Please model this.
Amino acid sequence: MKLINRDVDYAARALTFMARANKPTVSVAQMQEQVGVSGPFLRKIMQKLHKAGIVHAVKGKGGGFAMARNPDKVTLKQLMETLQGPLRLNDCVFGEKICQRHAACVLRHKIAGIESRLLAEVAAVTIKDLA
Model:
């Protein structure tokens, strides 16, 4: 199990590059070498970030993508939720319907505590921190 998938890794790299570049817009061509991924794949990631309101898509000559939020307002948790869904560590291995002890399960409660602390740590990491 990976905590951060490939899409989140590339998105964090792209947004970090954008924050460091400090330009109004950055093209996918400018980002792709720094991120280390093909243009079409990076475009798909950036479009998902655009739909989530993390970046703006700028069309036309000199277009590309611009940060929609300040880098200190974009967290690693937001990228993870946007690109890979919510982080869940505490799904019961038997499923809720099979296990009659779901509500009182000590292991599930321990894992829920770990998940809560992990989410707090991930939410504290911003693009500004990475830049």
The mean pLDDT is 87. The domain at 6-130 is CATH 1.10.10.10 (Arc Repressor Mutant, subunit A). The chain has one domain: 6-130.
